Automatic annotation (TrEMBL):
SUPFAM superfamilies: P-loop containing nucleoside triphosphate hydrolases. It comes from Streptomyces aurantiacus. Residues 374-383 have a biased composition (Low complexity). This is ABC-type quaternary amine transporter. Residues 2-237 form the ABC transporter domain. Pfam families: ABC_tran. The keyword Secreted does not apply. It comes from the Bacteria. Keywords: ATP-binding, Nucleotide-binding, Transport. Transmembrane segments: none annotated.
Length: 414
């Protein structure tokens, strides 16, 4: 969709901002440009809407050399969002968002109606429409910036560190909101950040730049974590990439076993008879209630009569990642992670050792993009002892339908 062919940008002072960049950005996806300060991210971004003209090479949009399109016309189809939102301070929020439709000659009434629609789309209450930018928080201003960029419903969106100026909690909210919005809008987005975690969370593809405007690697987040091209990328990606890449492996494919589980109506004697250090107590719908420690059990009564140790957290076979599963094992008092199906019923248990062995055993599908691996394939790779939940076609379909095999759902832990 957007293509860079041997593109360079040299400034008269001798700076090479971008050096021989060849890159093809997919339509309808989020491509993140990431790298240290001064590596040419903003320059690359601005060459897409002709705010910066390349010294050499060609940038094309849908197969057309963008030099053949007049800049104003080109920019009509390209929204632009910058850090601090860049709002007009003397215009109301509504009028800020109505800017582009007004420029396009929509007429005041229609432009404002569109602006109101866009404010709702980015999650701002209508009551804010009449305020001025200084009366909004940084995060709210950033949402207005996104709404304004969407004014003419452009197919392409350029975003230059849009969430960098806000605190980590607000940034997390904005990122989640942004992914939700993109699911609806399917824009072709070029997103600049210097934060690799943000890149991994948001990007369908990531271009890592090194100083001097050179592309170091262009890959999916999961491949970047699993196979960094060189030491620079490995360093840039960070140390705990082994754990982080588990976010891209679906829990649906992990092998679980039955485990020691009893209904809460069972007697304490039955629990002791299992001869296990911990027994998982479930309700009448097989939903997990907690763990009973065998050593502490009295002689009489039912499991309803005894205090249970909390589960820590369970993980869902529909939508959660292997990272969530491993975390569940590490936090569980019994050291067993409890996997639940779409209804929240226990599908099985596994300890951290079993989980990591299974994850390692999936070999290729661990490194591969989840889109390619898919639920069924991951399940196959995990072998015959596969989980009930994941083998259940309804659960698998559900996971598919919810788009969880894009690796984006349950992505809070990404
Ligand atoms: N107009 C200019 N004249 C000369 N050099 C420039 C000009 N604009 C940018 N540069 C230089 O080009 C290089 C790339 O700049 P660019 O703004 O693309 O970096 P960046 O990756 O966006 O950095 P940051 O993360 O700090 O925003 C830098 O060394 C910068 O100093
Ligand atoms: Mg920049």
């Amino acid at each position: 969709m957007i293509r860079f062919d041997a593109v360079s940008k040299n400034y008269p002072n001798g700076t090479t901002a971008v050096d021989g960049l060849s890159l093809e950005l997919a339509e309808g996806g989020i491509t993140v440009l990431v790298g240290p300060s001064g590596c040419g991210k903003t320059t690359t971004l601005r060459m897409v809407n002709r705010m910066v003209e390349p010294t050499a090479g060609t940038v094309s949009l849908r197969g057309q050399d963008i030099r053949e399109v007049a800049a104003p016309e080109l920019r009509r189809g390209i929204g632009y969002v910058i850090q601090h939102a860049g709002l007009f301070p003397h215009r109301t929020i509504l009028d800020n968002v109505a800017t582009v439709p007004l420029l396009l000659g929509w007429g005041k009434k229609k432009a404002r109606a569109r602006a109101a629609e866009l404010l709702e789309l980015v999650g701002l209450p209508a009551t804010m429409a009449k305020r001025y930018p200084y009366q909004l928080s940084g995060g709210q201003q950033q949402r207005v910036g996104v709404a304004r960029a969407l004014g003419a419903d452009p197919p392409v969106l350029l975003m230059d560190e849009p969430f960098s100026a806000v605190d980590p909690i607000v940034r997390g909210e904005l990122q989640a909101e942004f992914l939700r919005l993109q699911k609806e809008l399917h824009k072709t987005i070029v997103f600049v950040t210097h934060d690799i975690d943000e890149a991994i969370k948001l990007g369908d593809n990531i271009a890592v730049f090194r100083t001097g405007g050179k592309l170091a690697q262009f890959d999916t987040p999961e491949r970047l974590l699993a196979h960094p091209a060189d030491d620079f990328v490995a360093d840039f990606v960070g140390q705990d990439r082994g754990i982080r890449r588990l976010s891209f492996v679906q829990a649906a494919g992990l092998p679980l076993r039955e485990g020691p589980a009893l209904p809460v109506t069972a007697s304490v004697a039955e629990a002791r008879a299992l001869d296990e250090p911990w027994v998982l107590v479930v309700d009448d719908a097989r939903r997990p209630l907690g763990w009973a420690e065998a050593a502490g059990l009295a002689d009489a009564g039912t499991l309803a009569d005894i205090p249970l140790a909390p589960l820590g957290h369970t993980f869902s076979l529909v939508g959660d990642s292997a990272r969530a599963a491993l975390d569940a094992a590490l936090l569980s008092p019994s050291r067993l992670a409890v996997g639940v199906d779409a209804q929240g019923a226990v599908a099985g248990v596994a300890d951290a050792y079993e989980l990591s062995a299974a994850i390692a055993g999936t070999g290729g599908s661990l490194g591969a993009a989840p889109e390619a691996a898919g639920v069924a394939e991951t399940a196959e790779a995990a072998g015959p002892q596969l989980v009930k939940g994941a083998a259940d076609p309804a659960a698998a379909e559900d996971a598919d339908g919810s788009g969880s095999n894009t690796g984006k759902t349950g992505g809070g832990d990404r």
